[in-house]
Write a structure and sequence with these properties.
- One of its GO terms (cellular component) is peroxisomal matrix.
- There is one protein chain.
- This protein has 341 residues and is an alpha/beta fold.
- Helices cover 31% and strands 29% of the residues.
- It has one domain: NAD(P)-binding Rossmann-like Domain (Rossmann fold).
- Strands 3, 4, 5, 8, 9, 10, 11, 12 and 13 form a 9-stranded mixed sheet that branches. A 6-stranded mixed sheet has the order 6-2-1-7-15-14, covered by helices on one side.
- Strand 9 and strand 10 form a beta hairpin.
- The relative contact order is 0.21.
- It binds flavin-adenine dinucleotide.
- The site of flavin-adenine dinucleotide has 41 residues, from helix 1, strand 2, helix 2, strand 8 and strand 13.
């Protein structure tokens, strides 16, 4: 069999990181990324990019923890390298605060982030409406720079990238041996997945360079995440809403909620509003499927449905998708050598 041809559909953080893991796991593969949008026009560009996991109710916790750990370890190494600034990866410390003590005081990811501990009384004094809090250090991706960095790595390994809207994965069966579906919310239409739904998120990106620590309300709805150049203020979670237009009333509400956590934000300048649709599911769809029509087969690997936590687990799920691609290629090789006998 000649160099296996692999197409990755989608150029958000999931598609680009999956393409990179495939080139690492299968250096003899010829990898192509096909996407109707690239950075800065993907959901991944809107995200805050904080490594604080979202929980997928349909996925075992030990699997989610493994995905998070692999992602954290990978990005921690980048943050400690000369690549950090270009990749937009940095460590950030801060607080997650609660109005009452949560049922689960130790989240499953508490021993993956750095220095996780309960907040001291002195720290809690900064948040008079809150009774309990956790302090830790985690990583943050500045999303557009990270996507550009991934693209640069892919180009350096010879990966081709084309702007193309795929109407049906089957249309790729003549050109490619394996197709990887990383279409995010686009998979709703592309593969008709009714279990996939949008959770609309609106955020503000502001200039407030004095804000150095992250602050997250324990319900996950209000947050202040400082990046290298701008601070992300959030947010909203609106299930089944497909509208990508910013709502001015919501902008004011987000700004007010964030100012009540960090009053100095009243001085924030240059407010930009962004909206994205989280590709949400009970569990990430990370599996093989063999499509077949008229005696032809097309092995597909799905890797989509990362909801509110795509950045937090992207490297872990990309590695698993690359392993599934290797399985597909091994199966193709063994069936082509059987056919020659
Ligand atoms: P996308 O970025 O949407 O990429 C999908 C790609 O597929 C796009 O390139 C699209 O053009 C392409 N595509 C779709 N359909 C087709 C088709 N038919 N043909 C060709 N191409 C197609 N996660 C975190 O971990 N931490 C955070 O702090 C965080 N904050 C967030 C804040 C907000 C406001 C939002 C909206 C999300 C946030 N997320 C966060 C979640 C994160 O953004 C997503 O989980 C992640 O971006 C999903 O990546 P993706 O590559 O699957 O999707």
């Amino acid at each position: 069999m000649a160099a296996p041809k692999v197409a990755v559909v989608g150029a958000g953080v999931i598609g680009l990181s999956t393409a990179l893991c495939i080139t690492e796991a299968c250096p003899s593969c010829s990898v192509t990324v096909l996407s109707d949008q690239f950075s800065p026009n993907t959901t991944s560009d809107v995200a805050a990019g904080m490594l604080i996991p979202h929980t997928y109710p349909g996925t075992p916790i030990h699997v989610q923890k493994q995905w998070f750990k692999e992602t954290f370890t990978y990005l921690f190494a980048i943050s400690n390298s000369a690549e950090a600034a270009e990749a937009g990866i940095h460590l950030v410390s801060g607080w997650q605060v609660f109005k009452s003590t949560p049922k689960q005081e130790l989240p499953f990811w508490s021993d993956v982030v750095l220095g996780f501990r309960s907040m001291s009384e002195a720290e809690l004094q900064k948040f008079p409406q809150h009774r309990f809090g956790q302090a830790f250090t985690t990583l943050k991706c500045d999303c557009p720079p990270y996507l550009l960095w991934l693209k640069k790595r892919l180009k350096a390994t010879g990966v081709q990238m084309y702007t193309r809207k795929v109407a049906d994965l089957w249309e790729l069966h003549r050109e490619y041996n394996v197709v990887v579906n990383c279409a995010g919310i686009g998979a709703h239409q592309l593969v008709g997945d009714e279990k996939l739904f949008p959770v609309r998120g609106q955020v503000l990106k502001v200039h407030a360079p004095w804000v150095k620590n992250f602050i997250r309300d324990g319900d996950g709805l209000t947050y202040i995440y400082p990046g290298i150049h701008r601070v992300t203020l959030g947010g909203t979670r609106e299930k089944d809403i497909w509208n990508l237009s910013a709502d001015p009333g919501t902008t004011q509400d987000i700004f007010d909620r964030c100012c009540s956590l960090e009053p100095s934000l009243q001085e924030a300048r240059d407010i930009k509003v962004k909206v994205g649709l989280r590709p949400s599911r009970q569990s990430v769809r990370l599996q093989r499927e063999d499509l077949s029509q008229g005696g032809f087969k097309l092995p597909v690997v799905h890797n989509y449905g990362h909801g509110a936590g795509g950045f937090s687990v992207h490297r872990g799920t990309a590695k698993e998708a690359a392993r599934l691609v290797q399985e597909c290629i091994a199966a193709l090789k063994s069936s082509s050598s059987r056919a020659k006998l």
